[in-house]
Structure formats: C-alpha cells, structure tokens
Write a structure and sequence with these properties.
Elements: H1 5-12, H2 14-29, E1 32-33, E2 36-37, E3 49-52, E4 67-71, E5 74-78, E6 85-88, E7 93-97, E8 101-102, H3 116-133
Parallel strand pairs: 1-6, 2-3
Antiparallel strand pairs: 3-4, 4-5, 6-7, 7-8
Amino acid sequence: MARSTATLLGKSQKEPTINESLTMVDMLLCGVVIGTVNEAPADPEAGSMWIVGEQPSGIFSGQVHNLAGWTEGGLRFATPVVGMCILDRSIGALKIFNGNWTSCGPITPATGVSVIDTEVRQTVASILAALRSTGIISQS
C-alpha cells in the first residue's frame, strides 16, 4: 500500500519543530537575564536574554513580563510561569515570577548601639518580609 504524499511530508518535516524546541530549551535552561528592558537592544549577541518591562515598544510590544532571548535564528519570546526563577545580572539577584517579576531589595543592617535590640528586630523582620515576598520562604 502506497503512503500518501501528505503523510510522507508530515513525517519529513519534524526537524523544524524539534530544532525550534531545542532553541527554546537552550534559551531557558541557563536561567540568566541581562536585565529588564522595554525595547530590544540594537546589536544583541546570540544567547542574550532579557525580561520585557512594563512598557514595551517596537518588537517587544505586547510582551510585558515575557522573556526575550536573542538566538542565532533571531528573537524568541517565552511566557514565564508562576514560580519561575531567573538570575538577573543587572541587580545580582534572583527574580521570581508570581504574576510579576519580584526580587529581594537591599536590607538595611542594624547600626545602633544603645537600641540594638529594636534595630535587630526590625532588620530581622525586614529580611523575613523580603524572603516571603519573593517566595524564598513560605508566607506562614
């Protein structure tokens, strides 16, 4: 029994789908972004990735919060999922996606001598709040 041309073509066209999937895996596997931007850099290097900001323009339009990666085949976008974690090199910290990209901000160290107990308690409370807000520790 002869196979139809459509069946043969469907089987022979798997490479583009597999190659695109592998490109996305390569892009997302390292989990590192250069920073958050609203427009595409002028001369990106292959392997570069960014978080698209709140007010995207140009080819980033409509991609708020998505990851934009520049590959040898051009620009690719990936939609983050809740719980996704990315290292942002521009701030030197992890960002976690919970509907928005969040990260721990700087924490003010205790500096006083006479009221150190109060300052230490405030600093510890600040650390715990930052860790909870980014999902590093649970809310309860």
